[in-house]
């Protein structure tokens, strides 16, 4: 069997994942404003895909030629596949948007443009324009400049065609950047007879273009939105005289000038204007141009205003307390008694923040160490560490400066921490630190005792409200002492360390996964029960996939819950008939990584920060943590079983990548995220 028949290319699989996000916008059972916001998520995802993945392919085509292989496929051929799929998704997107607009109108909410304003609304828009918008726009007549204006990556622009009836007036073109970074994209107009109206910022500008160009003798022939996406990979030189902090800062600045990788435009744009822009931008017509509808930068629709009642949104589930954590009691004491696990957003992330706050003022705590990949802009987590440093604790923070699109925030926090005397480490050269670890060291009865948290996701209170992640709280010395070793390694990278419980990449995780899969193969061949259950974000690594195919042939039963990219092809006779795979996309982003091995009837449970991708296994510092507590093991078993039985939001991953939904067996519908909230609510009552 050819290699391409054994794998779905990661780029195509990623587009299939984003199509599942688009399905949420199409789902009539999803509240209406949430459907609009899923359009925004889809758009934002696609932006990042082009900035990073497509940009990399374009670099290969530009520098090495289209016939060179990119992860097993000719780069030019892959680019054409991506272009075809993106245009197909763009058409679905536009159709979905129009459907949603129609549904909004049925509910008395109207998104109107500049041509649909009545006189009262027109007066409101003109006043809004002069009071709020006019000071922030800077029209550029293209005949006045020698070089085409620089188009910023995250901005949208009105491309305007100007003509005139008088013989001396020659056709000209102009550009106006729409100031969405300063002003809201959506302006709510005065209601009329209980009907609500919303206009977009670019249409406010369109309505006032005659005023903008009043000093000229132009007629406005039309104004269309255009948008450019640029290569977002950081280019850092190897100047050893610069600190990593300086190099990353320089790289973030250079990203703003990245090469164009996608040009999106209103497909009704005047052809002469479009041709002029394409020529001046030196765009690749075959692989870079994406025609679309009237509006772009739909990521802004993630903030679409709810001008109606709460039924337009998902009901807000109040984050739950944990049965082992009492409000006025010590969390460290609770950890000392027994391991427990938070499952956010079902559980309240504030419990983790409370732990840090408690440790920051506990006189027996001597040291707090934390890894930081992404944190909130005004992070309660890092503010607690700043408080700890001010209280005389030794604070160690490993900050990953190369967390894509969060570099600037991480640079800011590294400086804030250094100001209060915290020890800030920037990881290991050429290895991103992606592990999610906390270690608290306390003196108890003249002994040093460690308390740890191991998480599948970032210590980020914003993410914890929408990302589904697991955080293990433990005082088990088998785990905590090895977490302490990881932090010691960051400070003393020249030392060798032995780990018997934590499994770390890049040195050990790949080998351990191989060994655990081989153990299941051995047991299956002996006629014993053998299975692997994996919940993960992305399954891409080909060597591991080969191992799973080998396990399949030995009779190992494999069940996969893969939110994003799945390069493995399930359900193919002779290759993967014993492998089933689903993907769940719902109101919360499934982010936890869990694996269960049958192990001859003595199940092994692990949670991890790592996906099964080359980068996580070979080029990042990751930690997989065994779960030893029987109650926590059962909790993980329960949540996995609930997700495996989802028949409302689970899609089948199959060879044709059609994202068909799991069919309801019998009469009972089960939506895993709803059931999990009920499950954890029930634990509080017991």
Task: Please tell me about this protein's structure.
By secondary structure, this protein is of the alpha/beta class. The protein has three domains: 7-245 and 258-312, 2-Layer Sandwich (polyphosphate kinase like), CATH 3.30.1840; 331-501, Endonuclease, Chain A (2-Layer Sandwich), CATH 3.30.870; 504-685, Endonuclease Chain A (Endonuclease, Chain A, 2-Layer Sandwich), CATH 3.30.870. The protein has 20 helices and 28 strands. The strands form five sheets. Strands 16, 20, 21, 22, 23, 25, 26, 27 and 28 form a nine-stranded mixed sheet that branches. A hairpin with a 2-residue loop joins strand 17 and strand 18 (447-455). Helix 2 (10-26) runs parallel beside helix 4 (75-106), helix 3 packs antiparallel against helix 4 (75-106) and helix 19 runs antiparallel to helix 20. The longest helix is centred in the first third of the chain and has 33 residues, at 32-64. It is globular and about 90 Å long. The protein starts with a helix and ends with a helix. Residues 234-256 have low confidence and may be disordered.
Question: How would you describe this structure in keywords?
Answer:
single chain, 38% helix, 686 residues, 3 domains, alpha/beta, globular, Endonuclease, Chain A, 8-stranded mixed beta sheet, 9-stranded mixed beta sheet, 28 strands
Secondary structure blueprint with pairings:
Elements: H1 3-6, H2 10-26, H3 32-64, E1 69-70, E2 73-74, H4 75-106, E3 109-111, H5 119-133, E4 140-141, E5 156-163, E6 172-177, E7 186-192, E8 195-200, H6 201-207, H7 209-212, E9 219-230, H8 244-255, E10 260-266, H9 271-281, H10 285-288, E11 289-292, H11 331-337, E12 340-344, H12 350-361, E13 365-372, H13 380-390, E14 394-399, H14 407-419, E15 423-425, E16 432-433, E17 437-444, E18 447-455, E19 467-474, H15 477-491, E20 503-505, H16 509-525, E21 531-536, H17 542-554, E22 557-562, E23 579-584, E24 589-590, E25 593-597, E26 604-608, H18 614-618, E27 620-626, H19 630-644, E28 650-652, H20 672-685
Helix pairs in contact: 2-3, 2-4, 3-4, 12-13, 16-17, 19-20
């Amino acid at each position: 069997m050819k290699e391409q028949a054994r794998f779905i290319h990661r780029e195509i699989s990623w587009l299939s994942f984003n199509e599942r996000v688009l399905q949420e916008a199409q789902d009539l059972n999803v509240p209406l404003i949430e459907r609009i916001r899923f359009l925004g998520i889809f758009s934002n995802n696609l932006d990042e895909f082009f900035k990073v993945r497509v940009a990399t392919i374009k670099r290969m085509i530009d520098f090495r030629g289209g016939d060179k292989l990119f992860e097993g496929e000719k780069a030019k051929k892959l680019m054409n596949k991506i272009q075809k799929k993106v245009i197909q998704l763009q058409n679905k997107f536009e159709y979905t948007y129009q459907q949603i607009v129609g549904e909004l109108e049925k509910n008395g909410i109207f998104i109107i443009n500049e041509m649909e304003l009545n006189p009262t609304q027109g007066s409101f828009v003109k006043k809004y324009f002069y009071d709020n918008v006019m000071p922030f726009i800077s029209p550029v007549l293209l005949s006045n400049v020698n070089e085409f204006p620089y188009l910023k990556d995250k901005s949208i622009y009105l491309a305007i065609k100007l003509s005139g009836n008088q013989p001396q007036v020659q056709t000209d073109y102009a550009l106006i950047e729409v100031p969405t970074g300063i002003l809201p994209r959506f302006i709510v107009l005065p209601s009329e007879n209980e009907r609500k109206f919303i206009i977009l910022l670019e249409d406010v500008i369109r309505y006032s273009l005659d005023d903008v160009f009043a000093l000229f003798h132009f007629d406005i022939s039309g104004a269309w939105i255009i948008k450019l996406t640029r290569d977002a990979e950081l280019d850092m030189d190897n100047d050893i005289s610069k600190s990593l902090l300086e190099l990353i800062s320089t790289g973030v600045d250079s990203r703003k000038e990245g090469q164009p990788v996608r040009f999106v435009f209103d497909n009704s744009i005047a052809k002469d204007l479009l041709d002029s822009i394409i020529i001046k931008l030196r765009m690749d017509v075959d692989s870079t141009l994406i025609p679309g509808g009237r509006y772009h930068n739909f990521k802004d629709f993630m903030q679409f205003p709810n001008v109606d009642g709460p039924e337009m949104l998902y009901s807000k589930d109040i984050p739950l307390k944990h049965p082992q954590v009492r409000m006025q009691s010590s969390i460290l004491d609770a950890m000392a008694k027994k391991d427990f696990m938070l499952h956010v957003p079902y559980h309240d992330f504030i419990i983790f923040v409370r732990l840090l706050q408690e440790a920051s003022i506990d006189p027996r705590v001597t040291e707090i160490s934390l890894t930081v990949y992404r944190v909130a802009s005004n992070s309660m987590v890092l503010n607690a560490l700043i408080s700890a440093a001010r209280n005389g604790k030794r604070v160690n923070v490993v900050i990953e400066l190369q967390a894509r699109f969060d570099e600037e925030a991480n640079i800011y926090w590294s400086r804030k921490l250094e100001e209060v005397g915290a020890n800030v480490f920037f990881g290991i050269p050429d290895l991103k630190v992606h592990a999610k670890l906390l270690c608290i060291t306390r003196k108890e009865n003249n002994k040093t005792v460690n308390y740890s948290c191991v998480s599948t996701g970032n210590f980020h209170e914003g993410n914890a409200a929408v990302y589904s992640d697991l955080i293990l709280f433990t005082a088990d010395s088998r785990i905590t002492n090895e977490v302490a070793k990881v932090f010691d390694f960051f400070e003393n990278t020249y030392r060798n360390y032995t780990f018997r419980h934590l499994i770390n990449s890049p040195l050990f995780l790949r080998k351990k996964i191989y060994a655990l899969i081989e153990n299941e193969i051995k047991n299956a061949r002996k006629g014993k029960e053998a299975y692997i259950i994996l919940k993960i974000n992305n399954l891409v690594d080909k060597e591991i996939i080969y191992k799973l195919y080998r396990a399949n042939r030995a009779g190992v039963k494999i069940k996969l819950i893969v939110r994003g990219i799945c390069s493995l092809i399930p359900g193919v006779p002779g290759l993967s008939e014993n492998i089933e795979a689903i993907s769940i996309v719902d109101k919360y982003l499934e982010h936890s990584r869990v694996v269960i091995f049958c192990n001859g009837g003595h199940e092994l449970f692990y949670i991890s920060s790592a996906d099964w991708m080359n980068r996580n296994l070979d080029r990042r510092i990751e930690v997989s943590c065994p779960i030893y507590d029987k109650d926590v093991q059962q909790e993980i078993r329960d949540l996995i079983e609930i997700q495996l039985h989802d028949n409302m939001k689970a899609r089948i991953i199959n060879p044709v990548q059609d994202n068909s939904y799991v069919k309801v067996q019998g009469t009972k519908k089960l939506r895993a995220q709803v059931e999990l909230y009920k499950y954890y609510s029930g634990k509080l009552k017991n």
